[in-house]
Design brief:
Elements lengths: L6 E4 L6 E4 L9 H14 L1 E4 L6 H9 L19 E6 L24 E8 L7 E5 H6 L3 H7 L3 E5 L1 H7 L9 E5 L1 E3 L6 E3 L6 E4 L4 H15 L5 E4 L6 E5 L3 E5 L8 E8 L6
Parallel strand pairs: 2-3
Antiparallel strand pairs: 1-2, 3-13, 4-15, 5-13, 5-15, 6-12, 6-14, 7-8, 7-11, 9-10
Length: 270
C-alpha cells in the first residue's frame, strides 16, 4: 500500500509500523491525516520518533481521530482531564497495563484507540508489547470460529480497580460485548476478550467459560502475533484498541518512566 507524504516502515508482517516524515506537534494536513489513519488501519499500532508536543497539541492530535474520552477508571491531569499521566518510579507498587489488555473494554463504548507520548525513560527496559487480535482470530480453526460466533463475554472493571483503590466506595463499568468483533473501518474480524477485564463468557457454565477463555488467552499471546516497541525519549505510540492487546513491561524498577496518554472515544462493538 503506497504512501505519498509519509514514510511508513512495517515492523513485522502482522502488526506494527514506524512512521517518519511528520511533526505531530503541528496541525496535520488532510493528506497526512489520511495516511496516518490508513497506516493505523493497516498496521494496528503505529510509532513515531523525536516528537515535540505540549498537552494542547497532544489533545489536538487525538481530536483529529474522534472525540476524546475521559478515562472511566483513573483521573486525568487537573488542568487537562483528557490526559492521563503514565508514571512509575522507586515508590511505585505497580504499573499501569502490566498485564495483557485492551483499554477499558469494560466501557459500553470502549475506546477507538490511545496515543501515548513518553517523556522520561530508563536507560534500558520499559518496552511495550502489542499483539494483533486479527491474527489471533484468523488463525483459529474454522470449528472454533463457528463456536465463538454469536457468543458474548462480560468485561468488568471492578476487580481491576478495586484491587488498586480498595478504600473507594465506587462502582466501575461492567459491559457485555461480542467475543468476535468486526472492525468498523477495515471490516476484519478479531478476538475481543482480554485477561485484564474479561471475567466470563455469558450463557455458558463457569467451567466451560474458564476453559474457553484460558485457551483464547494462551492462543492470542503467541509471539507470532506480536511487536515489541523500544521507547526512546519523545516517542509516540498510537494503537487501535479495537483489534489489539498491549502490555507494559516493568523491568526497570526503581528507575523512572513518565509519559502522557490521550484516549480517542470509540463505539459499541458489533
Amino acid at each position: 500500500m503506497a504512501y505519498d507524504v509519509l514514510d511508513v516502515r512495517p515492523m513485522t508482517r502482522r502488526i506494527g509500523a514506524e512512521i517518519f516524515g511528520v511533526d505531530l506537534g503541528k496541525p496535520l494536513s488532510n493528506r497526512q491525516f489520511e495516511e496516518i489513519h490508513r497506516a493505523l488501519t493497516q498496521h494496528q499500532v503505529i510509532f513515531f520518533r523525536d516528537q515535540q508536543m505540549d498537552h494542547d497539541a497532544h489533545k489536538d492530535l487525538g481530536r483529529k481521530f474522534g472525540n476524546l474520552a475521559i478515562h472511566s477508571g483513573v483521573p486525568g491531569l487537573p488542568e487537562h482531564p483528557e490526559i492521563v499521566a503514565i508514571h512509575a518510579d522507586a515508590n511505585s507498587k505497580f504499573v499501569a497495563g502490566e498485564n495483557w489488555h485492551s483499554d477499558l473494554t469494560c466501557d459500553p463504548e470502549p475506546p477507538l484507540g490511545s496515543i501515548l507520548y513518553m517523556k522520561v525513560l530508563p536507560d534500558d527496559g520499559g518496552d511495550t508489547c502489542f499483539a494483533s487480535m486479527y491474527a489471533a482470530y484468523e488463525t483459529l480453526s474454522d470449528r472454533m470460529k463457528a463456536y465463538l460466533e454469536g457468543l458474548s463475554a462480560v468485561h468488568d472493571a471492578n476487580p481491576v480497580y478495586k484491587a488498586i483503590f480498595p478504600d473507594l466506595d465506587r462502582k466501575y463499568n461492567c459491559s457485555t460485548h461480542p467475543i468476535v468483533r468486526t472492525h468498523p473501518v477495515s471490516g476484519r474480524k478479531s478476538l475481543f476478550v482480554n485477561p485484564s477485564y474479561t471475567t466470563h463468557v455469558a450463557g455458558v457454565s463457569k467451567a466451560e467459560s474458564n476453559a474457553i477463555l484460558s485457551y483464547l488467552y494462551q492462543h492470542a499471546s503467541n509471539p507470532d502475533f506480536q511487536v515489541r516497541f523500544r521507547w526512546k525519549k519523545n516517542s509516540v505510540a498510537f494503537w487501535d484498541n479495537r483489534c489489539t492487546w498491549h502490555q507494559a513491561i516493568w523491568d526497570y524498577f526503581p528507575d523512572t518512566r513518565t509519559g502522557y496518554r490521550v484516549t480517542v472515544a470509540g463505539d459499541r462493538p458489533f
